[in-house]
Amino acid sequence: MKGVEEKVVFANYSMCLRDAVGIFTKKLINNLFDENHLQENGEQTKESFFKILERLSIENGEYFWNEFEYSFVNIRQKLDLDALAAEKSDPAAKSLEEIYLAYPGFYAIAVYRLSHQLLKLGVPTLPRVMSEFAHSITGTDIHPGAEIGESFFIDHATGIVIGETTIIKNNVTIFQGVTLGGIQVKKSLASTKRHPTIESGVVIYANATILGGDVVIGENSVIGANVCITESIAENSVVSVESKNKIYQRRN
Known about the structure:
CATH superfamily of the largest domain: serine acetyltransferase, domain 1
CATH architecture of the largest domain: Orthogonal Bundle
CATH topology of the largest domain: serine acetyltransferase, domain 1
Distance between the termini: 84 Å
Mean pLDDT: 92
Strand content: 15-25%
């Protein structure tokens, strides 16, 4: 009918939840490391969790919170190992306190370990929003679906990308600008392993790119700066850039 405007209806995505999840994530980490903060704000953190799940139309909030809270001790133990790895590896680190308070890489790992646990519990959407909050303040993009072992150290943090199906084992160090990604971006590959496996003891220097779900970086290897790798590397290798990638076995 002429003169009658058609009403356009848009889906409601509650974009304000991005801010709410950021505040919740900060409270969660403060509770994890500061007993005084936990005593004063622990109940508020729990209520924030319930409100976020409600806005996301996620049921069984009490169950998810109880299971999540049960994992906090284990997460804190892993994060303490991550902090120790940073202190041992970084000559610029003057104390553990400095790691906890000032290292963006450690903060990104803390958010990852919390969001990863929520993803394992089957909570949708929230883990990804948490990871994007960490990304926005640290420059480090770790998908909560990645599998990361103990004593993980990220130095400098900025520009790091760790894809959803990445596997990182124990005592691994990576520097700024590293990408652990997929060779192809296709929706049909969503259920396949698209990102590399990094074995224990590996060091990956700045701006290295490692791509592909079948790629395995062997134990105790060193990947030099600016290297691009799309095939597996044997254990104890050193990969560097000259005119092309050069790979040789390290002698014991």
